[in-house]
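Checklist before submission:
- one chain only
- standard amino acids only
- sequence pasted in full

Submission:
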Amino acid sequence: MRAFRPLFQAVKLQKLPADYACRTATAALTQQRLSVVERETDADALEAALGEGPLAFVVKQAEAENQLVDKVAEWKAWEPLAEQAPEGQWAYAFKNKSA
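Returned file contents:
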């Protein structure tokens, strides 16, 4: 199962600020997956230990996370907004506004 190691080691999180929530959450998930990959030697055991469905899905998800990191870095999503957000921009449909 060590063949999966490069996939999880390749996450390009260093492109994002160290304290950015997306980076810290993705780093934790990636490290958890990598530790399981290091521990398991059987594909079925790896799939069960990850608990994220078929390995093909896990691979696709990891690839998508890498692509998303590239986009987030390009967008610089951690920077302040260029303009003030319109009123209600961050209000959610089911959020209790009186709370």
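Reviewer check: The first helix runs from residue 5 to 9.
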